[in-house]
Amino acid sequence: MPTTAEAISIVDDRPSPLARVVRKRGGRVVLLTELYPPAVGGSAVLFHGIYSRLHDADVTIVTPPATSRWGVIDPRGLAGHLRLAAQLRRQLPRRQGFVHCARALPEGVAAMMAQSLGGPGYVCWAHGEDLASALTSRELTWLTKMVYRRSTAALANSRNTAGMLTALGVPETKIHIVHPAVDADRFHPRVDGSAVRRRYAADASDVLLLSVGRLQRRKGHDVAIQAVAALRSRCPNVRYVIAGD
Description:
Blueprint: H1 17-24, E1 28-32, H2 42-51, E2 58-62, H3 75-91, E3 98-101, H4 104-116, E4 121-126, H5 129-134, H6 138-150, E5 153-156, H7 159-167, E6 175-177, H8 194-199, E7 207-212, H9 221-231, E8 238-243
Parallel strand pairs: 1-2, 1-3, 3-4, 4-5, 5-6, 7-8
């Protein structure tokens, strides 16, 4: 598994879209995300791990207030997107950098509007859950398709998410997979895990596996449990711990 720093340049068999955008646009990047530390969440950790390590880039983090008004039919939702689009135009003129959107909705809508009004281009992340949520509404499905259609690149966090983007009509040539990485400075074999092993009654010879995530069906904990059960015939000392709520 790559370290967080390696994830910037090792994404798939093509050059990293992150590195390419930074080189082409003079190193100016605006990350537009509702979630960024000290906010808690997997995407917040992911974005901090990557964008805090883009040392050759001039990175600005823009964290608009969280909103549930993702669409444009609602006048208040449309007004919110337009205000943010105007801010992006002021912050990053055309051809001077790129906006990196945490999701298509709501961040990508404002970036798309800014680009249409003469602002910068943008790339857009996809995580899976966000796409599934968009598919619950015809308006949001249409908006999501428009955002990715007009983006320079779509950054998927897994092959499964890339498949969801393809199903939405996003060209495969536009999709780049950026696997979530591990902070190797914090998580490494030299960490003393004896206290954790004692807590879960695992001997030093036991193989202790850990999953961290919400207890939702889409997370696939049930598949992991089945896989561990299948491993028991070859590795009887494997133990599996799930952390989540």
